[in-house]
Amino acid sequence: MPIGNSAPQKPEGPGIWPAELALVVVAAVFGLTFVLIQDAIEDVSPWSFVALRFLLAAGAVALPYLPALARLPRAGWGAGAGLGLLLLGGYAFQTIGLAHTTASNSGFITGLYIVFTPLMAALLLRQRVSPWNRVCIAITAAGLLLLSGFGGVLHPLGDALTMGSSLCFALHIIAMDRAVRLFPTGALVSVQLGTCGLLALCVAVITDDFGLPAEGDVWWAVAFTGLAASAFAYFVQAYAQRRTTPTRVSVILGTEPVFAGVFGYWLAGDRMTTLGWAGAAVMVLGALLMDAGSPARPRSRRKLCRVVDISLTRHGRGRAAASGPAVPHTRTARHQAERLSRRPEGPQGPDVAGASAQLSEHPGSR
């Protein structure tokens, strides 16, 4: 699936607000999974948990979309497989990198996909990042820095692996932006989730690390993360990316650590520092400012200017060559001038004065 071609501009309209509100719900669900997964991987290996989670999600999405899956072209299967590979790459680099760096470094570097996504969108999709969006991205990244408690101590191997995770998540958003406008959403998401689950299962089997959970609470965590944080979440993301831009998606989903802190405080007794709460507030502020700077409103002003320009041109007081409706009016004047110029000559010569008088009645022809 080529993602380097320039993409048409996203349609703006009433659908953008429900889509972005749904992304906020997805970010909250992702934040809740931190508490569930932290407890679940004490009983089952991480790769086994990822495999079970995504295979369940793939089955849940594929079931109502079996006819669409049967009609999905080879390119659609390839696109879904590529998305699944990027998704697994994000989780794999994050998991491996976490063994070689600190949790705060991992949280901050993974969240840098907020910054990488608009940069890649500009490079690969030729989507311009407005100055307002750049300011919002910088504000959100600063809040993420405060929230993570990043201490500035570098761990080269772990930080580099975690950077790979952030790049995979950013590329996943970019590739999703391209794929959702080419293939049916349900079929595409089910192939993506199935690819991620199968690859994780292969890794678990090859490393002799696969096992089924023995506790009911772990199965509950698998069910919740599979159905809510995978099937529902990635379907909603695909739906939303038909209606908004990758930059806005990355900033909204980037509030996931804020929800993780809130649910950790509420459910697990975690306590954030004052600096962490300040960072959470700054991240929310960045997301709200980006929503406040929606690009839908300037378009209405341009439409109004066009209507006024057409009206003025039609009455001869605007720019003569600007608007479509003025062209037939100009052609009519020229046609009448040609017709008058072909009149038979009278005893006083051609009727030039009559033609000039007629043309003077059409000031918009100049």
Q: Can you offer a commentary on this structure?
A:
By secondary structure, the protein is mainly alpha-helical. It is built from 16 helices and no strands. The protein has helices at residues 16-40, 46-62, 66-71, 74-98, 103-110, 113-124, 131-148, 156-179, 185-206, 216-240, 246-253, 256-267, 274-292, 296-314, 326-341, 352-359. Helix 1 (16-40) crosses helix 12 (256-267) and helix 6 crosses helix 8. The longest helix is centred in the first third of the chain and has 25 residues, at 16-40.
Unreliable residue stretches: 2-14, 295-334, 343-366
- Count of helical segments? 16
Strand content: under 5%
Arithmetic mean pLDDT? 75
Helix share of residues? Answer: over 70%
Could you tell me how far the N terminus lies from the C terminus, measured between alpha carbons in angstroms?
51 Å
The shape, in one word, is globular
**In total, how many beta strands?**
0
Structural class from helices and strands? mainly alpha
* String of helices and strands: HHHHHHHHHHHHHHHH
Largest sheet: none
Radius of gyration, taken over Cα atoms and rounded to an integer in Å:
29 Å
Core attributes:
single chain; 366 residues; disordered N terminus
Summarize the structure.
The protein is mostly helical and 366 residues long.
